[in-house]
Amino acid sequence: MTRIVVVGSINMDLVTRAPRFAGPGETILGDRFLTVPGGKGANQAVAAARLGAEVALVGASGGDTFGRQLRHGLSAERIDLTHVAQLDDYASGTASITVAGGENQIVVVPGANMQVTPAQVEQAHTLIACADCVLVQMEIPLESVEATLRLGHRLGVPVILNPAPARKLPLEWLKLTRYVTPNQHELAIMLGLDPNDDFRALMQRAPCPVVLTRGAEGAWYREQGEPIHQSGFRVDVVDSTGAGDTFNAALAVFLHEGLPTAVRKACAAAALSVAKFGAQGGMPQLSEVEALLALQSV
Ligand code: RIB
Predict the structure, then answer these.
(1) Residue in 77, 102, 97 with CA at minimum distance from that of residue 34
(2) Structure-derived torsion over alpha carbons of residues 82, 85, 91, 93, reported in degrees to the nearest 10
(3) Cβ 239 under 6 angstroms from ligand 1
(4) CB of 170 within 8 A of CB of 195?
(5) If you measure from the C-alpha of residue 43 to the centroid of ligand 1, how many angstroms do you get, rounded to a whole number?
(6) What number is the average pLDDT over the span 136-140?
(7) Mean pLDDT of all residues belonging to the chain
(8) 111: Cβ below 6 Å to ligand 1?
(9) Ligand 1 centre distance from Cα of residue 242 (Å)
(10) Alpha helix segments (H runs only) across 142-242
(11) Does residue 11 have its Cβ closer than 6 Å to ligand 1?
(12) Which of 13, 80, 239, 245 does the annotation list as catalytic?
C-alpha cells in the first residue's frame, strides 16, 4: 500500500453559498451556510486516504469544539493522527469561504496551524523515512515547510510542495522539492515574476520540476524541456473548493506509476471532486476515479 505523509493545515470551513461575490462595502443575501472540515493539509490527507493510501498527518488543531470535530472526522477516514498536536490554548484554524457560480473566495485564520514547528516535523522522521511521498502546503509556518523539504531531501523521500497560499520562496528550497504544484498565479508569486507572463515561460524559469494546475483545462507538467499538457475531464461544477487538494493527493498516490499517468489520474480525481459541495464532500474513492478513466479511454 502506498504510504503518504501530509504536513499541513487543519481548518473548519465556514461556507456560504451566494448567487455572486459581494463587493467591498456591499451586503448581499446568500442561500446556504455549512460548517464542513477543510484545511489544505487535512483535505490532501483525506483525498489520499480515499484513493487507497495509508496516510499520516503532521499538524495541529485547537482544543475547541472545531478541533474535536476535525480530529474525529480525520480518524473516521483512517488517517494516523499520532503527529497532530492538540493545542488547548489555541483556536483551531478556520476558513471563511464564499462559493458563487462554482468559484470560491477564501480567507483563512490559521490559529493552531501556525504552531506547527520544525521540531514537530523532525519528530515524524521515522514516519517520513518510510513514506513513498510527502505532501506539504503553506498554511503552516514557512520554517516548518522548509524543515519538511530538508528532511525529505535528506531521507531521499520525494516531497511535493503545493505553494498555496502563494509566497515568494528561496530558489534553494525549490531545488529540494520533487515537484511543485502551483497554479499560474502561485507560480509567478513563488518565483517573484509577473503573473501575466505566459505560464509555459514561467514553468521554464522554475529551478525544479513543475506540475501546473489549470482548472477545467487540466494540467501542464515539465521535468525538463517543453511543458506537456494533460486535458481536464468534463464535469458539472458545484464547488471547486478542494479540487487542488484532491489533485495533489492523487499526484502523490499515483506518482510511482510515472508522472504522465499520475497527472492524468490527478486530473480525473480533481474533476470528480468539484461535483459536490464542500472541500471534502466530493473527494472520490479509488473506484470512482478508475470508472471515470475507463469511460474516457473508450
Ligand atoms: O484548498 C481548500 C482549502 O483551503 C479549504 O478547505 C480551506 O480550509 C483552505 O485551507
Answers:
(1) 97
(2) -60
(3) no
(4) no
(5) 7
(6) 98
(7) 96
(8) no
(9) 6
(10) 142-155, 171-174, 184-191, 199-205
(11) yes
(12) 245
Helices 243-254 + 40-50 axis angle, to 10: 50
CATH number corresponding to 3-297: 3.40.1190.20
For residue 93, give the ligand 1 atom closest to its CA. Answer: 8
Domain map (residue ranges) of the chain:
3-297
pLDDT confidence bin for 296, thresholds 50/70/90: confident
- Three-state DSSP at 212 gives strand
* pLDDT reported for residue 214: 96
pLDDT category of residue 298 using cuts at 50, 70 and 90: low
Q: How far apart are CA 247 and CA 269, in angstroms?
A: 6
Task: Give bridge partners of residue 80 from the DSSP assignment.
Answer: 56
Would you state the pLDDT for residue 102? 80
Contacting residues for 260 by C-beta, under 8 A, at least 6 apart: 221, 228, 230
**Residues 161-205 pLDDT 10s:** 999 999 999 999 999 999 999 999 999 999 999 999 999 999 999
Size of the chain, expressed as the number of residues it contains: 298
How many angstroms is it from 298 CA to the middle of ligand 1?
35
| C-alpha to C-alpha distance for 52 and 249, rounded to whole angstroms | 11
Is pTM, for the whole model, over 0.85?
A: yes
245 is catalytic: yes
Q: Is the CB of 241 under 6 A from ligand 1?
A: yes
Q: Are 61 and 70 in contact (CB under 8 A)?
A: yes
Alpha-carbon span 12 to 242, nearest angstrom: 13
Cell digits for 15?
461556507
pLDDT digits (tens, 9 = 90+) for 51-99: 999 999 999 999 999 999 999 999 999 999 999 999 999 999 999 999 9
